[in-house]
Amino acid sequence: MKTTTLLLTGLLVSSLPxxxxxxxxxxxxxxxxxxxxxxSRDQNRKPNEILKLLEIKPNMxxxxxxxxxxxxxxxxxxxxxxTGKLYSVKGRLSKRDxxxxxxxxxxxxxxxxxxxxxxxxxxxxxxxxxxxxxxKLDRQVLLKKIYNKLNNNGYxxxxxxxxxxxxxxxxxxxxxxxxxxxxxxxxxxAGFKLDRSLSVLANxxxxxxxxxxxxxxxxxxxxxxxxxxxxx
Length: 232
Known about the structure:
The chain has one domain: Vaccinia Virus protein VP39 (Rossmann fold, 3-Layer(aba) Sandwich), CATH 3.40.50. Helix 1 packs across helix 4. Helix 4 links the parallel strand 1 and strand 2. The protein is α/β, with parallel strands linked by helices. A 7-stranded mixed sheet has the order 3-2-1-4-5-7-6, with helices on both faces. The longest helix has 28 residues. The protein is built from 7 helices and 7 strands, in the order H-H-H-E-H-E-E-E-H-H-E-H-E-E. The chain is globular.
């Protein structure tokens, strides 16, 4: 009986950090200052599951790569809680109420040349196809920089709109889609290994022939979620 009690107590204690982290994620997502427009997108973006995959904790250094309107940058800032550092690359955060967070830097260089320290997390959502479309960016050079800038125990997380099997990068301009296998192979060839993937944003009913911005597809595309680590 004592052995069973000790085992159960140990399991309970070991689960406490996970429970506490889940609570912080819920608080960040449901924060009263978060814009209603963002909250209305949560159903399709599943931020709870994405943030659990990222495992962002206070004092970490995080890059939100091509942050856009700052949907994720804001949640990351609330999770970091003015500790560590958040780099919002190309983020448009001026309309967001983040004045209490002094650890946010909005950076401009897509080659990450204006970030001069190692980081724990690099995240990009719905942008890898844009990287392909940007002819000024050498993806192999960029992936090498991401690899070198990421701490050995860090994560590189990529989300994007999936394209038809075998289509590769042929739909990155026309439909803003990219084949998941192409992304997986390219990033692994750069020295990363797939650590985890999620299917929470998958949609087997998605029509790959349609542009992601059409009313019938917007927010409902088949999206892949990959978490990579360095091969050490």
